[in-house]
C-alpha cells in the first residue's frame, strides 16, 4: 500500500498540469484544456461488444475526445474518464490505432479532420496503463463532486459518426 501511495505522489509531480482546487472532473478538464490549448470533450459511447474498450482517447487535429461506456455504472464512468485524462496529463504516447490522414473527413461547417489518433488500453505499454490507472484511482477518491458528462448525441453529426466508426473498429 505504501509503495502505491509513494508511486502516486511521484506521478502527481510529473503531471503536465496543476490539479485544480476543488478537484472535479470538469475543473481537471478545464485545466488540461488551458495547458494544452485545445478542447477536451467527454463523451458517452455505446459499446456493443463485451470485449470492447471501456474507455478511449481520440486525438484529432483540433480536439481531444475522451470516450467512455454509457452503460457502465457511474463510478466506472468516472474512473474511465480519469484514466484517459491521466494519459493526457502524463503526456503518454500510444501507438496509432486509427489514422485517418489519407483523406480529410469533411464535417459540414467544421474544420476537416486531417488526422485521428485513437488510443485504447491496447495501444499503451503496461507501465503507462498502470500509471494512468493508479492516478485515476488516487484522484477519484479525492474528487470534490461528480458531474454529468456529454453524449454522442451532443456532438456535431459528422463528428459523432467518426467517433462511432473508431469505437466500432476497436471492438472487432
Please provide a written account of the structure:
The protein starts with a helix and ends with a helix. A hairpin with a 2-residue loop joins strand 4 (105-107) and strand 5. The longest helix is centred in the middle third of the chain and has 16 residues, at 74-89. The chain has one domain. The strands form two sheets. The chain has a five-stranded mixed beta sheet, sandwiched between helices. The protein has a two-stranded antiparallel ribbon with strand order 4-5. The protein has 172 residues and is an alpha/beta fold. 30% of the residues are buried. The chain has helices spanning 2-14, 25-36, 74-89, 126-140, 157-171; strands at residues 40-45, 55-60, 64-69, 105-107, 110-113, 116-119, 150-151.
Could you give a quick summary of the protein structure above?
The chain is an alpha/beta fold and 172 residues long. It contains 5 helices and 7 strands, in the order ααβββαβββαβα. This is ImmA/IrrE family metallo-endopeptidase.
Layout of helices and strands:
Blueprint: H1 2-14, H2 25-36, E1 40-45, E2 55-60, E3 64-69, H3 74-89, E4 105-107, E5 110-113, E6 116-119, H4 126-140, E7 150-151, H5 157-171
Parallel strand pairs: 1-3, 1-7
Antiparallel strand pairs: 2-3, 2-6, 4-5
Helix pairs in contact: 1-4, 2-3, 3-4
Question: Any descriptors?
Answer:
five-stranded mixed β-sheet; 7 strands; 18% strand
